[in-house]
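Appendix B.2, paired examples.
Example (i):
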Amino acid sequence: MSNQRPVYLVDGSRTPFLKARGKPGHFYAADLAINAGRALLLRQPISPTDFDEVIFGCVSPTADESNIARIIALRLGCGEKTPAFTVQRNCASGMNAVDSACRNIAHGYSDLVLAGGVEAMSHTPLIFKESMVNWLADWNMAKSTGAKLKALKSFKPGNLAPVIALLRGLRDPVVGLNMGQTAEKIAYRFDISRDEMDAFSVQSHQRLGNAIEQGHHSEVIPLYTSAGNVLPNDDGLRANSSVENLAKLRAVFDKPAGRVTAGNSAQITDGAACLILASEEAVERHKLKVLARLHPAQWAGVDPSQMGLGPVHAIAKTLVEHQLPLHDIDYWEINEAFAAQVLSCIKALNDDNYCRNEIGLEHAMGDIDQAILNIDGGGISQGHPVGASGARIILHMANILKRQGATKGIASLCIGGGQGGSMLIEGVS
């Protein structure tokens, strides 16, 4: 740690997180990132061409957005000579992009980096089944009329049934479970009740509503549709959410007796977040204001069937790396993929047996007070555009530390496939 250069978060902005409503949303992923990035760059004393590189996380860019980071860089005017690359670590892609930038600056490879994450989940395509692809191949190879007729006879209407790529992407192919099923497993393991999950979800919506009312999401820039409509805030907020209303919802992933519902899970969402990271030399050279200091993230792997516990292991690595007790952390952001997942992480962190047997610690790390966890809402109320959430929680944690005059925060999230990521963020005076 001592031989690494300090890394600073200069500024950041994000779009509102827009709930997917069955049809493709107003914006493609690149458009979302451009809107967030343009607003951010317009208020800086630097030129887009001053960046050494551009790094973005994205899980499922469209076919027209290959290496979406390069598209973002060029459209923002960073210039042809500025390299750019895209990273993919499922739900932590945005955090991975920021971490990549952080490490490059810390080791002296870069001084000024534009990093972030983006996802337009509503644009995840419907795809053909393999049987249809094979039929189309046979049809294209059929040259004579007879061969065409033979191919037509072999066609089956069932070939046209679409495959929902989003559902395939949210399913772990190694253990054969979708993410909601993994949440059910850890809810059972840590005895998280349906009432606890629903109460946590209501709290998320209440906190988001309060944050919007109090102006605590200052990093959010409004979007404007092609029809001229303004989208100023995260639009998944359910201001009238209540435990009584949520109790009416049926289990989605483990019917009929499960506990995880659409109401206590993160919303499928479109959104982007952009951050500017700089070395101390770049801060001085460009006379930049500083929002927070970032430290390289810690990453951990867990059983894919219990992927929601990934933050516990990554947080443990962060606390050990920085020689910090859990109670030294002023604020926490743990991405709300599922209420069951966050509540299970809280219990696991405070469980002697889990910390001793699963992580190798001598005792439990401690209890996270929910009063300092996700204080302005989270993925259940705001939504979870998978490529963007990791960047969002880092940026928002930095803003919380500034607003509260606090010194230390940790941002963490679980990762499909059985991983966890965690980053220490420090407030600066």
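Example (ii):
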Amino acid sequence: MPRVRNAILALLACTVLLGVHPVRADESLYNDLGGREGITHIVDLMMTNILADDRIKHTFDDSDAEHVKKMLVEQFAQLSGGPVKYTGKDMREVHKGLHLHNSDFNALVEDLQDAMDVQHISFFTQNRLLALLAPMQPQVVNP
């Protein structure tokens, strides 16, 4: 499994280096993730993983976990082509002053992948979502 994770992280890095910007996917990705209900469950599992992950849980010490989950559901739903509008702040503003590094971003991606694995989201579908999230990395890391 680490080899698969490394391949995904390499895909994310290439996407970022190529300067690809997030775009809205067609609605099929939203549906493949289980719609709003499926995305909500993925985000719930992801937050459980994050808050148990010694590498990054401290990053969320001063956060309202329920608000973070709500914003992530909106963001994932909008990016994946769903009929949802993200109402949160831009990624640079949200992460300003957190002094995050690539290792923090990668840990979060792994926690998301683990959540999608539990939900039996296909590797192909996971990569489609990750490809939409990857361009946000420069806005999250050391903003």
